[in-house]
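Example (one chain per record):
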Amino acid sequence: MNNWYLLHATQNLSEASILKGMLEENSVPVLLVNKQDSSYLNFGDIELYVPSHLKDIAKHLVDHGLMN
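Predicted structure:
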């Protein structure tokens, strides 16, 4: 995963899905990695990765998306 940048980590699957959708609508590919424990969802995170060369665009989109 050398060419991917960890953009955001959360324990909320809904938040991760919304951010993934928003980024993909803006032509930013997203790799979603769910590291949550299957029995205890409060252990582990859901991580969103974007291509390293798009990290600045993705950060801008997420920052403005979370403000609204």
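Caption: The domain at 4-67 is CATH 3.30.70.1530 (Alpha-Beta Plaits).
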